[in-house]
Amino acid sequence: MKFVLEVDVDADRSAEDTAGELGRILRYWGGNLKHYALKPGDGSAVYDSQYQEVGRWSIVESGGS
């Protein structure tokens, strides 16, 4: 299986703000994964600290390698 995380980054944020927000997203969703079976098809929208949808994570079949 493959874990895919895609997040749209606001181009108007400073690099420091972007790094902080991405860190928060990774910590939150990393801790939240225990609530999922982590099977292909699982996934969820990803939200920033202002509760705006900024992306999605998903579990997909691995293409090999």
How would you sum up this structure, described in words?
A three-stranded antiparallel sheet has the order 1-3-2, covered by helices on one side. It has 65 residues and is α+β, with helices and mostly antiparallel strands. It has one domain (2-60). Helix content is 28%, strand content 29%. The protein has one helix spanning 15-32; strands spanning 2-7, 43-47, 53-60. The relative contact order is 0.31.
Looking at this protein, list some descriptive labels:
3-stranded antiparallel sheet; elongated; alpha+beta; about 60 residues; 3 strands
Widest beta sheet: strand line-up: 1-3-2
- Number of domains as seen in the coordinates: 1
Q: Total strand count, please?
A: 3
**What characteristic shape results from the CA principal axes?**
elongated
% residues in beta strands: 25-35%
Which class do the helix and strand fractions yield?
Answer: alpha+beta
Number of helical regions: 1
Low-confidence runs: none
* Order of H and E elements: EHEE
